[in-house]
Amino acid sequence: MAEAIMDRLRDAGHRLHRHPHGRGDFRHRAGACDVVMMLLPDAPAVEAALFAEDGFAAALPPGALVIDLSDLPPAEASANAARLADLGALLADAPVGTDPVIDLGGSDAACARAEPLLRLFSDGVVRAGGPGSGQRARLVRMADMRMADRKSDDPDGLHRLLRLMAFDGPAESRLGTS
């Protein structure tokens, strides 16, 4: 998947640097980049690429954008966005997978910069909300797909309640009860 994404970005005229783990000598390259995209296998790999001693976050120039295409827990994506903000950088979480839709989460500034780049390789970019929301929306979308596969009509409304909680916090605030 990473190669296909890189091909689309190159075709659009973007200059790319690739490093399989985003660490070590990549740190020096990241310091000259406006945008860094990463697609790593899990949260520990993302943590190491960004914040390990040889991670690249500290080398980013002020205002740089990190687009994380990895599949992470929403809380991890939110925490990474906060840590990068402390360093003067932006993070957009936009997990990719087999679904043609990319759910985009992050600050307004991060999403505004990330969306045109994501549209170079997907027509289905959907703004999901603030930091971590791309990950939350992907979880809900995956649950929807599993529910559709089971052909459940969700008679007790549990699936609807989970969706409300995923996007809006406590369900009580959305259901009008205290």
Q: Low-confidence parts, pLDDT < 50 over ≥5 residues?
A: 168-178
The total count of helices amounts to: 8
Number of strand segments: 5
How much of the sequence is in beta strands?
Answer: 5-15%
CA-based shape:
globular
End-to-end distance, in Å? 45 Å
Mean pLDDT: 83
Rg from alpha-carbon coordinates? 17 Å
Helix vs. strand class = alpha/beta
SSE run: HHEHEHEEHEHHH
**Helical residues, percent:** 40-55%
Strand order, biggest sheet? 1-2-3-4-5
What can be said about the biggest beta sheet?
5 strands, mixed
Secondary-structure topology with pairs:
Layout: H1 2-11, H2 26-30, E1 35-38, H3 43-51, E2 65-68, H4 74-86, E3 90-93, E4 101-106, H5 108-118, E5 124-129, H6 133-150, H7 158-168, H8 171-175
Parallel strand pairs: 1-2, 2-3, 4-5
Antiparallel strand pairs: 3-4
In short:
This protein has 178 residues and is of the alpha/beta class. It has helices at residues 2-11, 26-30, 43-51, 74-86, 108-118, 133-150, 158-168, 171-175, and strands at 35-38, 65-68, 90-93, 101-106, 124-129.
